[in-house]
Structures are given as structure tokens and as C-alpha cells.
Backbone:
């Protein structure tokens, strides 16, 4: 966490941290209150049960505060989601095909690779296809995960920092699901263009 390598890392990590802090706070608070009340109102100290009348201020408090906290968590989640679905028009387009149990990446010039090469610091849009069963395109360092479903094309995008990152299938897809790994390699755009040209020549292109 907090070592993200894409434009989504900060927003996803912030939303996760907010939800985590709120959850831990109320876990500790509720547990402490439960222990306190169990001790204070146990049968030995209170052999005769007493009726407790409701409290309107208390009812309002424990309704309003959780509602506000829920809205805060929703806001951070929604703003991050909007960023993920608003794909820049000038994003580089790459076709991604998943199948049991490998990934294939096809670029605009027709070159195909089993490692995803992308230009660093450049918007990249991936078109996700499946040849067989449901898969999931998951790059943990990018905080990007998208289902890859047969008969349907899903889209995702990201801006990667330079480096090499794990790319996995995050949807159980059969016997060798755990081995359906490859890499995303983000390199300067000049190196990326040279790489594609060289691979095109090797594959018999012009």
C-alpha cells in the first residue's frame, strides 16, 4: 500500500485508508462499550432487571453520525470511480485477450506479445476480451481490476510510472488459474516505439 505506480493509486489508497480507519475506530469503540456494559450490568450487580426508556437525542446521534460517515466513504469511492471510467480520448489503445491460462496483448501495428509493454506517463486504454471463461485483469500496483467476460468487451485505462509490475488473473478460471501471471513493463515512449518496430520486423512486418 502507498507504493502505487499509476494515476489511480492515491485515490484508491485514500478511500481504503478512510474506510479502514472508520472501521477500526468503531470496532474498538463498540468492543470497549460491550465489555463495559457486560461488566457494569452483569447479573451479580443488577439481580433485578430495570426498564430503560428511549432517548431521542441518542437516537438522532447514532443515526446522523453513521449517515455522515457513509456519505464521506461514498464520496471518496465515487470520485475515484469517476476517474477510472472517464477514459481520455487520446489514450493509446491495446487489445487484451485472456484465455486459459495466458494473456495476449495486441498493439495498433499488429504486434502481439505475452508481456504488456506500455509507454510510461502516457494514458493507455485496454480492451479486454476472453476466449473461453471469465477472467479478471488485475494490476495490484496500479490499483486496477476489471472483469474479462466472454462475449463482451470491457475497458480500463491507466497511466503507469516507469517500472515492471505483476499482472494477474483475479477471477478463478480453472486448474492453472494461479499460474496466469505476466508483467506490465512501462518504459519511456521512445523506447516503446523502438520496441514495437523491432518486434514488427521480427514478426515479418514492413
Residues:
Amino acid at each position: 500500500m502507498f507504493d502505487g505506480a499509476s494515476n489511480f493509486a492515491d485515490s484508491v489508497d485514500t478511500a481504503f485508508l478512510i474506510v479502514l480507519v472508520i472501521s477500526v475506530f468503531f470496532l474498538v469503540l463498540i468492543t470497549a462499550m460491550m465489555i463495559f456494559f457486560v461488566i457494569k450490568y452483569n447479573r451479580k450487580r443488577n439481580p433485578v432487571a430495570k426498564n430503560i426508556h428511549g432517548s431521542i437525542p441518542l437516537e438522532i446521534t447514532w443515526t446522523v453520525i453513521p449517515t455522515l460517515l457513509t456519505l464521506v466513504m461514498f464520496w471518496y469511492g465515487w470520485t475515484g470511480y469517476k476517474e477510472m471510467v472517464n477514459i481520455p480520448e487520446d489514450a493509446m489503445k491495446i487489445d487484451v485477450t485472456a484465455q486459459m491460462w495466458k494473456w495476449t496483448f495486441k498493439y495498433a501495428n499488429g504486434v502481439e506479445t505475452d508481456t504488456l509493454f506500455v509507454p510510461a506517463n502516457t494514458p493507455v486504454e485496454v480492451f479486454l476480451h476472453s476466449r473461453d471463461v471469465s477472467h479478471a485483469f488485475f494490476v495490484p500496483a496500479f490499483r486496477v481490476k476489471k472483469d474479462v467476460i466472454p462475449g463482451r468487451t470491457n475497458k480500463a485505462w491507466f497511466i503507469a510510472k516507469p517500472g515492471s509490475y505483476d499482472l494477474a488473473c483475479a477471477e478463478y478460471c480453472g486448474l492453472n488459474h494461479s499460474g496466469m501471471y505476466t508483467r506490465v513493463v512501462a518504459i519511456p515512449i521512445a523506447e516503446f516505439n523502438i520496441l514495437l518496430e523491432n518486434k514488427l520486423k521480427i514478426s515479418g512486418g514492413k
Observations:
- The longest strand covers residues 92-99.
- The longest helix spans residues 9-40.
- The radius of gyration is 25 Å.
